[in-house]
Task: structure prediction
Amino acid sequence: MIGISLRATDCPNVCRHCWIYGGSTHQRETFPTDVLWEVLDRFEKHKNECFSLGLGNESTYHPHFIEFYERVNKTPNFERIWVIPTNGWGIARDPDVALRMKEVGIESLRFTLYGQEPRHDWFACRKGAYADLITAADRAKAAGIRVSWNIKLDKGNVHEVPAMLAMIDRRDEKYTPFVIEPTGRGSEIQHLALEISDFDRLPEEIKKECKPTDLSNVKCQGCLQSPCFVLAPDLDVHFSIMMSGTFRTSAWSRLGNLKNESILEIAARLEGNEFYQLLISISVQELAEVYAQPGDERFHACYLHRKWLEQHLSEKGIRTDFLKP
Ligand code: SF4
Result:
């Protein structure tokens, strides 16, 4: 399976922790719809390979997102899309959209909450972002699409958690709590990142799902073992690593260009990429054994992974600039 994020669409929000807008490159540029269909034609021809495709950023912001889901779900060598993470944009703009989504095989939507309405809109940097979530969730439910919520926690919204849980409970929907690890443009809100000392402020019912990293048994989330690829607007293909703040498309992550090569040729180049090799050269558990210090505990192992890997490579005199958020 080859996973590819097609950067074919942007996002109306500019969430304060979003990794998309960080790093050295401005990643709002997208490629046109006719190019999107051409790309799908090409992938479809590799009948013995399975592709998992995403439109990029906020999929419902793309003017033809329903046609995209429909085509993907009808094509045997594309993995079926049935659950979509979304901020609700496209669904809130048109009352018929949720029903169309259901018709093309979407069964579940996942929304993300950053607080109650004023706090959510502030964090998403768009007035009306919260109202869109609620409208979209209502329309999805009415169309027979399951709705669930991610609650993203930081120092500025932890006191609002009971109200967020009550809202979800009233709707009879499910949620998963996450502690925000600011990446990308999140360097501006590092002061909002929950610290281990804040753990006691979390409501009891979510504590078990927001446990700090166990330094004696640090687990990697697996993105290094099965990285996916990003197709940039110039049709450059990059490998994509979600390791806290490291993701961006730069010279070091470039593997080739789809204009003159096939996706299979390009994807096969991953193992030979020197930066990918550095990322996988040592496991997070081995790094923890050497570098973990009391007080290093964080909510996210990937932050520690990046920090320790940077230490490890620096000691060996190897460049680490590609690890900078
Ligand atoms: S809605 Fe998602 S893609 Fe858009 S800015 Fe927020 S986190 Fe980033």
